[in-house]
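Q: Predict the assembly, please.
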Amino acid sequence: MRTTSRKFIAATAGAASIALLATACSTGGGGGNAEETTDPNAKITLTVATFNDFGYTDELLAEYTKLHPNITVKQTKAAKSDDARQNLTTKIAAGGAGLADIEAIENDWLVELLQVSDKFLDLKDPAVDGRWPDWKNAAATSTDGRLIGYGTDIGPEGICYRTDLFEKAGLPTDRAEVAELIGGDSATWDSYFDAGKKFVDETGIAWFDSAGALWQGMVNQVEYPYENEDGSVKPLADNTEIHDLYNKVLEASVDDKLSAGLAQWEQDWTAAFTQDKFATMLCPAWMTGPIKQNAGDAGQGKWDVADVFPGGGGNWGGSWLTVPASGKNTAAAKELAAWLTAPEQQIKAFENAGTFPSQIEAQKSQTLLDSKNEYFNDAPVGQIFSNRAAAITVSSFRGPNYFKIGQTITDALRRVDVDKSQDAAAGWDQAVKDFNALGL
Amino acid sequence: MSLKSPAPPAPAPEAPYRAPRRVGFSQTLSRWDVKVSPYLYISPFFILFAVTGLFPLVYTAVVSLHQWTLLGGQGDFVGFQNYIDVFNQPNFWKSLRNTFSIFLFSSVPQVVVAIAIAALLDQNLRARTFWRMGVLLPYVVAPVAVGLIFGRLFADQSGLINAWLGAIGIDPVKWHVDVIPSHIAIASMVNFRWTGYNALIFLAAMQAVPRELYEAAIIDGAGRMRQFFSVTVPQIRSTIIFIIITSTIGGLQIFDEPRVYDEYGTGGADKQWLTTTLYLYDLGWGTQANFGRAAAVAWLLFIVIIAIGLVNFAITRRISSGDAPKMTRNQRRAYARANAARRNR
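A: Predicted assembly structure:
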């Protein structure tokens, strides 16, 4: 899952890079902490390290200097999130020298960084209480209660679907009716699969792209998927909750032939957008970018977004701003991080780069609610994804072994759904073997 | 040689206390010069090697004996536990299997085809430089770019290769599912990149083969094939050994191609094409973030390469000693000339 999300970044980076090139002049790599100081009015430079495009333009950063004339803000941008991760982890391992005052991090590295939460400033502050939904804060809070990051963007999930294929199957194409078809406010995975069976019976075309993609959505609704609250590992062989979900997704994918059997981000998956290979997919706010990119001009108007998600809400991806504890101006950096992630600034970032804001206040902003996506039949994506964000209740617990264990299951899903080299039972047996080989 | 280190001269009869001391010091200097300088001249390489080669090697060994994580750094000393853990992971053995399989699928055809191409290029062709540069072109392409392009060609459903196979009535091959096809696909990337490069090295060796040998062979009635096998191949034997050794080391360290073969870079859902270096990377920087185990794998890989290097060395020695009595006329002449020169000195 970590890699998939990286690919997403790569894909969205492609879409965003034009805007990035147009708006962002290089801010240079230098900067750093000017001098150690306790004087609040001393002249200092704060560096912000981001990746891809967070929507923090030079104009936006200059506004901060207007408010605090003694502070200059410099941004360094990594082209890919992986580069930023490499830089951050290497420097943390080396003691923190050379890190920026504010380091942006991504959802998928959060788990490993929480293991060393003492390397980051505890950002808990009454001033920002209630700025984010609880689940967003909970994800960035370590087991000993330290908040290491202020949330920037999120990826609330809806369902993207092909209107032309729905029409072919004699199903409704209007996004409100499609939401009802999938189950409306009380949609479950079963109701989503039931709608799929109708569709597949009519057309013989798959309902969704990949079992692995669905797994991502399903497992994110489980509060403690692979580990207990204290971080101890649940033995996979006895983890009936996960085993049941695994069987459920594969039963729908393979037995009911709802899955197109594609691995997300693979060449075959990308190519499938220009063919009629599947009709729906789980769709975080940022996924509209890759869909547009993969389906191309020919797909214009064929896609739409339904304001519905099975099993409640779901989030996929998102970022935070952290303040490394080794910095010289940590207090000033914390203040800047709080300002950058404030709803007013985050709305500007959304306008600049399309990053969906995580702040409750920002999700109610008129600018956001009015935003539409031309490619998706002018769907009111701002309104839809705000609703989807409000529906998210559960934050899935991610302990230190989350990705290791998750990998054994996603590998099994790929063997059964994509490779078709094993059946569900054999896939599970091997996942348990792989889990045991991890020696946790 | 003898000029610089003369036998101690007989003590001069006049002024015995001054002159020898002066001469003695400069003599000492020049003796040092003779003895030490050669080592000084080659020392940059060994100092660099110690810093960039030996130190990491030793440090990796130290890491492999500790608990060591990507972010947390050094943990407790655990002895050989990391090695035991690695041996207990089936993926390690799978990675060894894959590495050897991909190595065989790449190195063997590579050497054979490279010799054949070199033999063709060694003929009197028009636009010789064009052809020679042509075979080197794939080497210029970055391995990751090769991987991305071949990844598209070998896509299971939308790939060009399966489309071609379909056109001639062959069922599509599951390049990303079955073990051997995935190895062949990855080996083809390696071969694409390295065959031309090796062909040029072979070509250089072939052009050093004395032409009179071929003339003699033609007079003896040898055809083209016979010339190739009885003159060319024996003459470039040492080059062949060099290529085999370098391609062995390269083949065992293969990383870029399997890493970009699919979008996940983890060697496939069933680890069908997980090579040992890829496994190492996954241990250290992937989901496991365990530098201790990664360092253990690095050392195991090092030992495997040394073992295979020794096998190579043994075979090489047998070939070269087996070669000795069968000296060619030219070599015999050169040998005689060299001996004569030595005697005349």
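The radius of gyration of chain A is 22 Å. Chain A has two domains: 2-154+317-381, 155-315+396-437.
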